[in-house]
Amino acid sequence: MYAKILIQMDNFSYNKTVIVLAFVFFAIVGVFLAFTYETTFSIVRTTASEIIPNAIKARGEERLKNPPHPIKGVYISAWTTTNSKKIDEIIKLINETELNGIVVDIKDYSGKLTYNVDVPLAKELGALDEIKIRDIDEFIKKFHKNNIYIIGRVQVFQDQVFAKARPDIAIKELKTGKIWKDNKGLEWLDPSSRIVWGYAADIAKDMANHGFDEVNFDYVRFPSDGDIEKLDFPFWDSVRPRYELISSFFSYLGGELKDVDISTSADLFGLASWRALDFSFDLNIGQRLVDALPYFDYVSPMVYPSHYPENFNGIKNPSLKPYEIVSGSLRTWQELKATTTYRAELRPWLQDFDLNGIHYDKTKVRAQIRAVYDSGVESWLLWNSSSKYTRDALLAE
Fold it and tell me: What local confidence, expressed as pLDDT, does residue 71 receive?
């Protein structure tokens, strides 16, 4: 009997211990859940009210609400963006003259991107290895604070980085199968590659997220310099007309960027504008003005007088006749207005650099601007690869 009582007492003590431990366990769990709930709710509440809006704001600067028009801009290279003193000088020049826009390289001949573009393919190609603008939002904001319209320039089919990383997409030498290079030793991509098309569009979309007012597409053509008779294209069948292919690329960009908050433009050779009414003429590089007009906000023929050959159209030395060359290159604009349904405005690139021993002073630069206005065109851009411009050629603000 006594042993039985001891056993019952032991059971009671054991059960009591279990109950106490269970109570302690559930108490701890309850406190933990309460803490977790509060913490979770706090995180959710913070995410809803703070994190998401901040993430949206972090997408970047917005476009100018009331962009200036007409656009009168100058070009700066990717390396110029690393010189804060030079940037301040450019902003001062714009603020004190009739200028109101800037064109900055985002992807130049090297294929390297100027800022950390959020496009996976760019990282795969190695195009993000030489970032020059560390904070692209602050860079854009600096111009926007001065009401300066900012255009990002993207070279498309001339791209060393892309060609070396993806030789299967690069233009080859017909006999050797090696990557073909132009007279400057630069590689090119097959203009019919949809991967290249998508890459250009994706870069533009990322630029829009950071508040660029416009994306400018350059080198939207087949190669023109070098032994172009020995080209081997991995995709283009050499049968489809070049201009038809480039026109399809323009159409693709128009569709991809239709609902993206960024204006668009494309650069063409000056001769494409001079002979715009000759629809059989594409300079053997696929560029016709009529093909670009429906798909961009601006089309910019590069009407640099020094780039026209000697005795062109009866002009012995075109470099010495800036007014005549620019005027002749733009006169077809008025005729196209009457015959073509188009979207774009013409906005030519003008020369502000010396070449072949001929100095381009204020008289020659201003003669080009005057020819633009006399042709019924309002906007223009000045090019100098060193980002140095003739201040005396510009009207004071």
Answer: 98
